[in-house]
Structure formats: structure tokens, C-alpha cells
Amino acid sequence: MITLAHIVRHPIKSVGYEELDGAPLTVGRALPFDREWAVSHVAAKFDRLTGWQAKMNFLRGVAGPELMAIRAESDESARRVTLFHPQAGSLTVAPDSEGQALVDWLSPLWPEGRPAPRAVEHVPGQAMTDWPDPFIAVLGLASNRELGARLGQDLSIHRWRGNLWLDGLAPWQEFDLIGRQLAIGGAVLEIRQRITRCKATTVNPATGVADADTLGALAQHYGHEDFGTYAVVVQSGAIRRGDEVRVL
Q: Over the stretch 52-69, which tens digit does the pLDDT of each residue have?
């Protein structure tokens, strides 16, 4: 049996992850409150954000590995997020109205020589994901375990910044599901494409330090740098951790 083992979201792009017990999924939308905000830098190619923009305009873990060590707890109703970092401590912030406080907290974690953090960005109804499509990242725990075995270490699932983690698939079986639909709780998702990875996945989310050559291991053992898949919601409904997942 395949089950939904983890539901994870990232309220601020590249700045903190949190696990959920459940979530409502809606056709045409990403996971609620996932990448609700992003932090632009001074070299961003826009002055005022009015729609989706490419990831290079924002702070990202690939450029600032210490960001990978941030955890989050969010209050959707109050639109507030609490962030935790092993060195920087914690911050509770309402990104819509207290963006400068977030920028100030992040600045010491951002590498010198990189374009400095500028502002918190938000577009109603548009998740600040790497693609403009309302993708939800669906990944397999077995693939993570097998890759970790290749590297000789346990790999935290939070290296991959995924949303839905499935248990019960064979390693890499998620790639065989492209074009298929998955029923999870009351929702149905369609798997669309693989996710090609970057060096942010080499960073340990407990420490913010690169300690695993994930890309090298993927290339050496599997001939690609892909991990996980993107899906879209084709039937709205609620999901909960532990739900059975049926391949339609």
C-alpha cells in the first residue's frame, strides 16, 4: 500500500520549511501557503512584483546555504510566520506588513558578495515557486533512502523542498507515474514531469552546511540530476498525513 507520509510547505520561498497534518487542495492552486512570499534582492529584474518571476530574482538556498537550516511555523489566519535558525535564533513576523524586519533578520545569513536582500514580495493567488504553474512536488521516500545509501548517510527529506512524500513506492517508481493520476484523500493529482535539482540539495537542513554530493550521486548512479516529480491538482479535496494513495 502507498501512503502519504509527509505534507511539507515553505511559506517563504527558500526561507523555512514546516510539516503539516493535513491541507485542502484546490484545482489550479499550489499547496496552500506554500511559497506565499519570496524575498527579492537588489539585483532583481523588476521594481514592483505584479506576477510570477524567475527564481534568480529571489534569495535561494543554492546561493545562501544557511537559509536551508531555517524551520518555520505559520499561522495562516493571522498571516504570520515564526522562523527558527540554529545561529540566528527566532523571528515572528507578518511578512505583508513587517517585511523590513524579515529582511534585517535574513541579511546576516546571506553571503557577502551576493546581491543583498531587498524586500518581501507577494502576489495574491500566485505561489512564488520555481515554475509559474501551480505545481505540487510529489516525492518518494524509497528514492531518498536509496540515494542516501549510495552516499553512506541519512538524507533529510527537507533537502529536497518537496510537498507530498509517498511511502510504499519502489525507488524511483514516481518517475513511472508521469501522466498518471493519484487519488489522495478527497483530492486527485496528475503527475506531470520530473524535477531537475540544484546544489541547494547538497546542504544539510540541520546545519546549513553542504555535506552530501547529491547531484554527483544522482549523475553517477542514475545518469541524471532529477529527484521527485511535479503534479497539479485535478480534483479538489482535503488530504491528511497517513492517507492511502491510489494510482488511477
A: 999 999 999 999 999 999
